[in-house]
């Protein structure tokens, strides 16, 4: 059951981040009016969930964190560029998408690092309160 919850958590996080990043990419790259089909929306959601599941790489204990980052970067790029190809350039031409991809990847890592830092701070505050009460 714990594995199922972990899979859902990774996929869910990927969906949330991926949906936001897909929409932002289309806002800044596409023309002023775009039409997105159900197939395209489904493909973007599948792409986002796959990227979320790909974060399992960071749970592999034998793989160092700084070794997992480039692997995650490359595999995520394959998923993103593959989806873009499948969707006939919905996210932009590959040369522009490369720049956008790098910017988004760095931005997401920055936001995740901030999120983790706030989470650690919150946990430490709870521990301090608990220790003061004992």
TrEMBL record:
<dbReference type="Pfam" id="PF11457">
    <property type="entry name" value="DUF3021"/>
</dbReference>
<protein>
    <recommendedName>
        <fullName>DUF3021 domain-containing protein</fullName>
    </recommendedName>
</protein>
<feature type="transmembrane region" description="Helical">
    <location>
        <begin position="99"/>
        <end position="118"/>
    </location>
</feature>
<feature type="transmembrane region" description="Helical">
    <location>
        <begin position="65"/>
        <end position="87"/>
    </location>
</feature>
<keyword id="KW-1133">Transmembrane helix</keyword>
<keyword id="KW-0472">Membrane</keyword>
<keyword id="KW-0812">Transmembrane</keyword>
<feature type="transmembrane region" description="Helical">
    <location>
        <begin position="39"/>
        <end position="58"/>
    </location>
</feature>
<feature type="transmembrane region" description="Helical">
    <location>
        <begin position="12"/>
        <end position="33"/>
    </location>
</feature>
<dbReference type="InterPro" id="IPR021560">
    <property type="entry name" value="DUF3021"/>
</dbReference>
């Amino acid at each position: 059951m714990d594995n199922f919850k972990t899979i859902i958590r990774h996929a869910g996080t990927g969906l949330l981040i991926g949906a936001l990043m897909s929409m932002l990419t289309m806002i800044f790259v596409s023309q002023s009016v775009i039409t997105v089909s159900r197939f395209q929306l489904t493909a973007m959601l599948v792409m986002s969930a796959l990227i979320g599941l790909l974060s399992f790489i960071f749970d592999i204990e034998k793989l160092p964190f700084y070794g997992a980052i480039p692997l995650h970067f490359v595999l995520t790029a394959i998923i993103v560029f593959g989806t873009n190809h499948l969707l006939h350039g919905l996210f932009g031409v590959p040369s522009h998408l490369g720049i956008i991809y790098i910017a988004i990847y760095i931005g997401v890592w920055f936001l995740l690092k901030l999120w983790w830092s706030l989470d650690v701070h919150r946990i430490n505050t709870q521990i301090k309160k608990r220790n003061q009460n004992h």
